[in-house]
Each structure stands twice: as structure tokens, then as C-alpha cells.
Amino acid sequence: MADEKVPSYPDVEQTLFDDKDGAPPAQVLKHANDADEAMKAFEDHDGELLVLDEATNRRLLRKIDLNILPLLCVVYGLNYLDKTTLSYASVMGIKKDIGLVNDDYQWLGSMFYFGYLAWEYPTNRLLQRLPLAKYSSFCIILWGLVLCCMAAVKNFSGAIAVRFFLGIFEAAVTPGFALFSSQWYTKKEQGTRIGIWFSFNGFAQIFGGLVAYGIAKGAALHGSSIAPWKIVFLVTGLLTATIGCLFLFFVPDNQLNARWLSKNDRRLAVERVRVNQQGIGNKHFKAYQLKEALLDPLTWAMVFFALTGDIPNGGISNFFSQLIVSFGYTADQSLLYGTPGGAVEVVSLIVCGYLGDRLGNRILVSTSGLMISILGMILIVALPLSNDGGRLAGYYLTQASPTGFVALLSLISSNVAGYTKKTTVAALYLIGYCVGNIIGPQTFRPKDAPRYVPAEITIICCWAACLVDLLFIWWYCQNQNKKKAAFRAQPQYRKLENQEWLDLTDK
């Protein structure tokens, strides 16, 4: 039965029934010949039982955390920093230097997500077919080098091309990291870990604001041979490419080729995630899993959330520097005063991730961040222009908004089973994310400056719709849990040996 402490997640235990002659279903035998990569760890054991005691499990978890989590965190922070350097550049002279007029800047903000959107499904297929860590490293290195090219652009068309290719290469990071999380961590560990590496968006906002402020002030005091905004792109791009090389060297494709694990620990590291019933990877495309993903109501509820919730994200992430200037601060001050927003994001994601795992209810816990964000945007809209401190505090509160997005991302990681289905749902979820982020910058119209009230009201409405959607997802998951518990209680139900490694779906 589903754990009573986690009623909001659909239980992914498979429900298999005997045929009339007592043999396993033919469909299951077919899948056994197309099993997960994890089966390789046990193919020479002939049914030998691996014992994983609590002390060994804790030792392995510490080792995995030390070797995997830091690089996931740093790379994900750079993922956010690299696509939002444009916001810092917007108040450092890029608009004048490359001749941006009318709504050119809005289209630069959106173009990143056109590239992301175009490559999202292909990159998910490549994440399944190719070695996970090696393909991820390739994308990290290339997006860092592409970002450096932004320092060389001379006009709008050049900047558009760079932003498009930046989106293509960054498209792999979020679905890839969701796969890493499901591959290395148990369901009860994933919410906290995903919250931790996603929270580095906030650390990146703090780091990026300080770096941009330092470069701007240094250039003003001592001069520079190139424009300060170009230095920002070069520093962040070269840093990303360097970290990508380290990722290639240190992060394994799965437990079976982890150099920092002994041969026996590799098998134990696979055994510890048996409880997920999702394996560690399968390179075969399965059409029935694609069909199941497309027909699952939960898939489209998640896509709706990603699309609607990322309209605010696309607007705020590209306009937060200009938004802070509209509160009455200078351009240099906007670089510095944007950094506390990153701290709010870090705290909200880590706290919600931890409480979600601890209480067994990631969805309901995540609604708190959305409610705080709605309050923040109401302050921005309702407070008078003279109250610059109160409106700035409202902006900080809006940075708690990613809690719902991260909760659903962890749900894809832990509760969507079947490798083709998981990568398909992740791709659709992030396609919704792209569409929302494309729309978002377009809500900030030049004619509405400096207050952008229509965009701010749009953001409030989007977050309110997301709140309702999260409650629906919570109800739907509870309902699925009850149906599956009743199904498994039937006397014909039985579980097959190594069923967890057959790459079956959560249905």
C-alpha cells in the first residue's frame, strides 16, 4: 500500500497479474529483455541477496552527496546566471552599444527560450540515448563558450543568434539534472536534493549581482578597454566552460562507472534506489510509454503549471534590474539591491524541499512560496511610488515563487516511472516552461514603463491560477494512491523478481 504519510504522491509500485496458466504476462517477459541498465549490476549474482544496512546506506549517501551534489549545484547556479546576465547588461549600456530600440530587448529575452523550446524534446531523447554525464558536460562547455560570444556582438541580429544558441545548449540541464536525481537518490531524498541544487539560482543571483556591481564600479573608477557589460559575459561564460570540464571529469554517467565507488559499492548504490522502482537508465525508446505520457492527466496539469507559472518568471528574470530602477534606485544600485532576492529564493527552496520530504507532502508545502510571491507582487502594485523600500521588499518576496515549479520537477523525478515516459514528461514540462518564458518578457511593454502595472497584474493572475492547479494535482495524486492501493490488495496481485529493473511505468 502507499505510505499513509505521503498520500499526495502516486505510488509507483507496479501492479502485475498472472496469466491463467500462472506464468508472468507476455508483456512483462518482453520488457525483461529490454530492462534497465541497473540489471547489469546483478546479472552475475544468480539471485544472491545484497544486504544494505542503515550504516552502509548513510555512508553511501554521504559519498554520493560529496561527489555529485556540489557540481550539480554550481552548474545549476551558472545555468540561471548565464541566461540572466542580459538583465545586468541592460543597465550597463548594452542597449545603446548594439542599438536596441522599441521592443528589441524584449525579444532578446524571449529568444533564449525559442532555442530552448526548439531543442527541448531532441535533447531529452539524447539524454536517454547518450551517456548522461558526458552529454551534459558537452552542453555545459558549449553554452559557456556561446555566452562568451555575446561580448562580440555588434547589433541586434548578432545578439539574437547568440541568445538562440544559448537556449539550445542550456536545454539539457534541467531534465538532465532531474534524471541524475532519480538515478542516485531515493524518493524520500529527492525533494530535498532537488531543492538544494535548484536553490543555486538564488546564489547565482547574489553572485551575479555582486560581480556585475564590482565590474561596473571598477570600470567607472579605473576605466576599461572594453565595455563593462562585455566583461560580465566573458567572466561568466569562461567560468561556465571551466566548470563543464570539471563536470566531465568528476561526474559519472551512472553508478556502474563511478570511479569513486568500489565495485561492491557500485552494486550497493544501485540497490539503494531499488525502492524507487525506476532503475538508473534505459536507452531504448518505447512507444507505449510515450502514449501513456500523452494520455496522463497529470502530465498536462504539470505542463499547464510550467507554462502559466513561467510567464512571471520570464518577465521578472529579464526585467528585475529595470524594475528596481523603477522603484527609484540608480542603475548601479539595482545591481546590488537585487541580490537579497536570491537569498529569499535559496531559503524558500531549501526549507520547502526539506519540509516536503519530512512531511511527505511536497505539493501542499510548495503552495506557501506561491502565496508569499502573490503578496509581494500585490505590494509592488498597490504601494505608492514614494514607498520605494516597501516595493523593493515586495520584489524580494516574489523570489519565493519557484517552490511550486521545483516541487513538480521533483515529482517527475520520483513519481514518473519508465525512462521514455519520464523523459517525455520532463520534455513537455520544460516546453511549457519555455512557452511561458517566451510570453513573459512581452508582458513588460515599453509604453508601460516605469511601473509596468499591466505586467504586474498579469503576474498575480498567473500565480493565482498556478495555486489552483497545484491543489488539483494534490487531489489527483491522492485519488491515484487510493485506486492503486485497492488494486494491489486483490488476491491475484503478485510482484516479480527484479521487477524494479524492468523499466515499467507508474501505471
TrEMBL record:
PROSITE patterns: MFS. GO terms for cellular component: membrane. It is a multi-pass membrane protein. Pfam families: MFS_1. It is found in: Membrane. One of its GO terms (molecular function) is transmembrane transporter activity. The keyword Transmembrane applies. The keyword Hydrolase does not apply. Residues 1-22 are annotated as: Disordered. Keywords: Membrane, Transmembrane, Transmembrane helix, Transport. The chain crosses the membrane at residues 135-153, 159-182, 194-215, 227-251, 293-315, 335-356, 363-386, 392-412, 424-440, 452-477. Residues 68-507 form the Major facilitator superfamily (MFS) profile domain. It comes from the Eukaryota. Gene3D superfamilies: MFS general substrate transporter like domains. Belongs to the major facilitator superfamily. Allantoate permease family. This is Major facilitator superfamily (MFS) profile domain-containing protein. It comes from Letharia lupina. The lineage of its organism: Eukaryota, Fungi, Dikarya, Ascomycota, Pezizomycotina.
